[in-house]
Amino acid sequence: MTSNERDAQQHDRLTPQTLDAVIQAVGRHLDIDVRDATLIKFTNNAVFRLANAPVVLRIAGSEAMRSRVPKIVRVAQWLEERHQPAVRLLDGIQQPITAHGHLVTAWQAVVETGARPTGHDLAATIRMFEALPAPPFELPAWNPFIEIRQRIHDADGLTDDELAFLEQLTDSAERDLGNVNFTLPAGVIHGDVFSGNILMSPDGPIICDFDSTAIGPREWDLTPVAVGKLRFDYPGDAHDVLAADYGFDILRWDGFPVLRQIRELKLITSVLPILNTNLRIRHQWRLRFDSIRGGNNAAKWTTYS
Predict the structure, then answer these.
(1) pLDDT value at position 288?
(2) What kind and span of H or E run contains 102?
(3) Integer distance in angstroms from the first to the last C-alpha of the chain?
(4) Could you read off the pLDDT of 221-257 as tens digits, one per residue?
(5) 109 phi, psi to nearest 5 deg
(6) Distance from C-alpha of 194 to C-alpha of 129, rounded to nearest angstrom
(7) What is the mean predicted confidence (pLDDT) over 164-172?
(8) How far apart are CA 165 and CA 162, in angstroms?
(9) Residue 81 shares a structural domain with residue 199
(10) What pLDDT sits at residue 10?
């Protein structure tokens, strides 16, 4: 990477000062009160809930995420046109919004019950995407390695040895994927179905986060919950309920170890561009990275703060 590329990359990083400037600019653009906005998530995107309006603002956190924003907007519009239970963009404005060089989307806040999605809710969401026809616009073909490599390229604060390990692991996973024989038919997939992307409203589960929506193997939409069962100490066992409800247990499928490796690669590379900006995630990232590098498949992870 050249010095000019490094300078541009540093300029693009989200810092507390940058986030505040972006939020203030969006507030002026939309003529809404953004005082006391709460940062509710800061991993691959920064997500704010406004205190004085029923609005959620989502700021793309890296070049990899910015490239997906137009697709995210189109998918959200398409799901609304089809009356699907998904988060809605804020009405009456052109999206995305550009603020200080960053892309922002504005969403209608969902009233949440506080309930945790069940395996039945997750299965219903997967089946909802399965039932969708081909959209009237082009969705990308599923290729997780584009995103993984972009995030490695945008990494902030890793050693050359750590970067080399991730690059080699990515190359190995891509080779292994070439030998996987998928069982389920391909089609529209959400790409990241897990409890964190399901909002429980009084009317039922609502799906959010369309960064990874694509045309791809159905097995991929079953993978996050299965990896969650193996890697995270989530309350209850959503995977077993999902598998019984859906009628296919991906843990018993011989291609699952490869998809697990890809999912875990995504989980450790997703935050690389903001690793030195959001220091609260650093300890958990290190635990994840060291367990993968050490071949410890039994290590338990927690969600990023």
Answers:
(1) 97
(2) strand 102-108
(3) 30
(4) 999 999 999 999 887 789 999 999 999 999 999 999 9
(5) -65, 140
(6) 14
(7) 98
(8) 5
(9) no
(10) 46
State the pTM of this model.
0.92
Number of domains present in the structure of the chain:
2
Whichever domain contains 250, its CATH number is 3.90.1200.10
| Final residue belonging to a domain, choices 56, 80, 108 | 108
Number of H helices, E strands in the chain: 11, 9
Q: Which residue has the tokens 């995107």?
A: 45
Return the pLDDT at 13: 73
Q: What is the DSSP letter of 301?
A: B
Query: Is the pLDDT at 8 greater than 70, yes or no?
Result: no
Reference 60, options 38, 84, 43; nearest CA is 43
**Residue 297: inside a domain:** no
Q: Omega into 96 within 30° of 0, i.e. cis? A: yes
Q: From 129, 55, 43, 133, select the one nearest 86 (Cα to Cα).
A: 129
Q: What is the CATH number of the domain that holds 76?
A: 3.30.200.20
